């Protein structure tokens, strides 16, 4: 019996015995690792009935980050924004996967707020609608109180919110009751999606499961793009000492000369040290945020031992 395995770039023909044939269904392709759609047909050739099995590449049941790739078993497509991408196996442990999902979600939301705070005020200031300071120099301004007071207040409120979010991750649904007004309760919510009047006033989080998953996937995709945009704006400021909107207007005014190759990279020793220290500190922060709960205890013990 002849088996013809056709893919987009490779066609392989193998000869097998009838006893080794596979029934109609899906199998694995040795050459590409992709699932195959197997179909058995019989035809009369020279008065004899011959069995032929045709194997064609099966269409994927969901979009993948790389066409033809095989997603890991722990990424089965049920999560929003799951395209089967985990080359380092960070989600192989169920506890790590649960934590990383929530870590990515909250970083996506902060990045979208950060991107809006970078691009929108800078653009409106550029066209003369607003007169706001640049995002990279906002910390140098004087506000209604000193920075220490602002930091303590921010630490209190964000610590309270993060503590409740952490508790909801550990024990889903434990924070669905308003701590001040117990009559206000949230029902039917998922971790990371509290809903209600404050977080879903338009009721977009209700409806069919497919609709909800589509909206959550869009949020994750926009959040991932925002994280890249914020990082790009930050590196762009380091390289050009201006913001992305200023660079865009300069490039549109003189596309032939105002490019990344025309800007001379000049970073003093002090600024280089500051940026290196910031990158190191932020890397430690991300490692701590993305670490599962068991690793956090080890990190806390190491920090305590280092401090004596």
UniProtKB/TrEMBL annotation:
GO cellular component: chloroplast thylakoid membrane; photosystem I; photosystem II
InterPro entries, per database record: Chloro_AB-bd_pln, Chloroa_b-bind
Pfam families: Chloroa_b-bind
Binding annotation for chlorophyll b 2: 107
Location within or outside the cell: Plastid, Chloroplast thylakoid membrane
Highest taxon listed in the record's lineage: Eukaryota
Family named by the database record: Belongs to the light-harvesting chlorophyll a/b-binding (LHC) protein family.
GO molecular function, one term: chlorophyll binding
Residues annotated for chlorophyll a binding in this entry: 104, 218-219, 222, 224, 236, 251
Membrane topology summary: Multi-pass membrane protein
GO BP of this protein: photosynthesis, light harvesting in photosystem I; response to light stimulus
Keywords: Chlorophyll, Chloroplast, Chromophore, Magnesium, Membrane, Metal-binding, Phosphoprotein, Photosynthesis, Photosystem I, Photosystem II, Plastid, Thylakoid, Transit peptide, Transmembrane, Transmembrane helix
Function: The light-harvesting complex (LHC) functions as a light receptor, it captures and delivers excitation energy to photosystems with which it is closely associated.
Amino acids binding chlorophyll b 1: 109
Name of this chain's protein: Chlorophyll a-b binding protein, chloroplastic
